[in-house]
Amino acid sequence: MSMQNKKTPFRFGEKLRTVRERKGYTLKIVAQQAGVSESLVSQIERNKVSPAIDTLLTLADVLDINLEYLFEEYRQKRPVQIIRAQERRTLEEEGILYEELAKPTEEGDKHSLESYLIKIPVNQKTLRGSYGHLGREMGFIIEGEAQLQYESKTYSLKQGDSVSFSASSPHTLVNTGSIPLKALWVVTPPQRFV
């Protein structure tokens, strides 16, 4: 049985284009960095051609796309997802550590979410949400004290407190305590681990 049929073409193109546009890269920039022609990148993005595996891996590298995200729809669908403690994906941004607890599902799934632990050093703050994005967020403070700066308001959060809000407005989480802040965070649609 062929892996590819007319009804379910590979969807690498859509994912590559979405990430490229989200990062603000032009076709030309991506093509130059990947060492391929601009027209090839365009054809791949429109699913007109199936990329050679080395081209696909190079494009994923240029765009900093996680390979699991690219190939996830070709794995067998599993109703229960487990991430073992020692197998969590981690991401560090400006000294802040994010540890993935729940993986996003396929793009286009309106129920897709991601969840992670955030560890923020004393006097540090998150940066990515400072411009706002689509969706909602929910957080729970496990250890430490924080301040949520949301639009022009400030909210104090202590251990055991939870918060939820529309993510479309600018928001920043600041560690205002004397110990590293540890918080559980849930975001929909996913932002960090895609």
What does this structure look like?
With 194 residues, this protein is α+β, with helices and mostly antiparallel strands. The protein is 23% helix and 29% strand. It is built from five helices and nine strands; from the N terminus they run αααααβββββββββ. The longest helix is centred in the N-terminal third of the chain and has 12 residues. The radius of gyration is 19 Å and the shape is elongated. The N terminus is likely disordered.
Write a concise synopsis of the structure shown.
The protein is an alpha+beta fold and 194 residues long. Helices cover 23% and strands 29% of the residues. The chain has a 6-stranded antiparallel β-sheet with strand order 1-2-3-9-4-7, with no helix packed on it. A 3-stranded antiparallel β-sheet has the order 6-5-8, with no helix packed on it.
Low-confidence runs of at least 5 consecutive residues: 1-8
End-to-end C-alpha gap: 30 Å
Quote the average pLDDT. Answer: 85
Shape: elongated
